[in-house]
Amino acid sequence: MGQGDGGDRQIDGVGSPGPTGRSRRLSAGAPGKCGPGGCCARAAAPTASRGRDTVFVWLIAILGVLGAVALYYWPYNKTCGTWLYGYLIGVAAVAGCGLMTMRSSWTHRRGLAHAVGLLTFLAGLAFAAAEILPRTGYAAESRTWTCPS
Fold first, then answer.
1. DSSP for residue 74
2. Which residues, 6+ apart, have CB-to-CB distance to 18 below 8 Å?
3. What is the pTM of this model?
4. What is the tens place of the pLDDT at every residue in 41-83?
5. How many CA atoms lie within 13 A of 145 on its CB side?
6. Are 30 and 38 in contact (CB under 8 A)?
7. pLDDT tens-digit readout, 54-63
């Protein structure tokens, strides 16, 4: 399988003789400190976020906030029927924007955007609870999903 002299790894003549990049990284630790072969697990250094990633995170965050504000001032009747379903689709979109903002801001290490995403998600949950709970019998008042004919 291997060709080479004295423990060097070379498979079928492909690659350079000598230890592979992985084995060099594993043997970089002090021998006998962490385990057999001296391999120690090291935390990966945080990567710098690119400018377009930051713009993407804030674009989603602002879109979610604008959606939440638009739902607060929803101009149509949302007591029953088609407008209620449209409203609930908007609520799901706002909550989804909040989740997507939290995910991308966590990945790109943007703390303020993460807080904005959390607040957007909580606003979406509050909007959903205000419309769903009375229709499921949980709240004191009772509402219906469809409009009476």
1. -
2. 8, 9
3. 0.65
4. 555 555 566 888 889 999 999 999 999 999 999 999 998 889 9
5. 6
6. yes
7. 899 999 999 9
